[in-house]
Specification:
- One of its GO terms (molecular function) is RNA binding.
- Pfam families: SmpB.
- It is found in: Cytoplasm.
- It comes from Maridesulfovibrio salexigens (strain ATCC 14822 / DSM 2638 / NCIMB 8403 / VKM B-1763) (Desulfovibrio salexigens).
- By secondary structure, the protein is α+β, with helices and mostly antiparallel strands.
- It has four helices and nine strands, in the order βαβαβββββαββα.
- The protein has helices spanning 16-21, 36-43, 91-104, 132-154, and strands at 10-14, 22-32, 47-48, 53-57, 60-64, 67-68, 85-88, 107-116, 119-129.
- The strands form two sheets. A seven-stranded antiparallel beta sheet has the order 1-8-9-2-7-5-4. It has a two-stranded antiparallel ribbon with strand order 3-6.
Length: 155
């Protein structure tokens, strides 16, 4: 019998600013508690990561600052676009993240939303902030790598 190919999870949205502004130390996968109209909006890709971050309250992790646009074809039951959404993580993962954020001055940022086996998952990253100088160095390093790759391809 032939083996089935594993499909890579299809991305809904990426947080491009996070890769530019933060250096990732560790990444995790978390589930989200969503309402039906939020899922339908996410299937259409109507989400914005602009000011998203993870907040810890009473032993729970919450996704704050993510805008999921209202679903057009919903009736009278519409979700609130900017409400905080609970993350589904194990208690030990939450404790570990919370302690590292408090001790080392790191932050937890959302990286991407994607479908995994019919469920919507959020990739979060424990990250260290970059300053402007580090960002410029990173851009220079990428430009140099791109130029050398281009020259090697032409050689």
């Amino acid at each position: 019998m032939a083996k089935k190919k594993k499909k890579s999870p299809s991305s809904i949205a990426l947080n491009k600013q996070a890769r530019r502004n933060y250096e990732f130390v560790e990444t995790l996968e978390a589930g989200l508690v969503l309402k039906g109209t939020e899922v339908k909006s996410l299937r259409q890709g109507l989400v914005s990561f602009m000011d998203g971050y993870i907040n810890f309250k009473e032993g729970e992790a919450w996704l704050v600052g993510i805008h999921i646009a209202p679903y057009d074809h919903a009736g009278y039951t519409q979700h609130e676009p900017d409400r905080p959404r609970k993350l589904l993580l194990h208690a030990r993962e939450i404790e570990k993240l919370q302690s590292r954020v408090e001790q080392k001055g790191l932050t937890v940022v959302p990286v991407r939303l994607y479908f995994s086996r019919g469920k919507i998952k959020l990739e979060i990253a424990l990250a260290k902030g970059r300053n402007v100088h580090n960002r410029k160095e990173e851009l220079k390093r990428r430009d140099i790598a791109r130029d050398t790759a281009r020259q090697l391809a032409n050689y």
